[in-house]
Amino acid sequence: MSKLSFMSEPIKPQLLDGKYIATLESVEEKTGDTGTPYVQFIYKLKEHGDRTIKDQRGEKPARIMISSLRQQLGRQFEEIVPQAFCDELIKNKTQFNIWLLKETRDGKTYNNIYFYDKATIAATAAKTETAATAEEAIEELPFTV
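Request: output the structure for the sequence above.
Response:
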């Protein structure tokens, strides 16, 4: 009888909704089962030792993520190449904030990763006549790490 390896490995506790300090560990372009390309980002959480989170994003969500991260780090006025920007974050172990939020849509629960406090963005969007969506209000908020 063979021993199942997962039976002797610890299972990490579930992460709660909220703010975490993270670093970018890796970035890799991949292709899904349907042939659709996406980018896989792996983040390491500061408060949780070796805990990592995988984040898979298509082109538009990846662009929003990079834009939000640039804003948070105060680099929104610099011209960047996304891969070089990510490589720099990995090399320098640059810390940034992420917000985890469980959301239910169509009866399914999703664990979402944001690079801004979604509640603050939603409140700002509601007050901002020019922002059509919460994501468009990102540019108006000051971010600090």
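Residues 17-137 form a domain with the OB fold (Dihydrolipoamide Acetyltransferase, E2P) fold (CATH 2.40.50).
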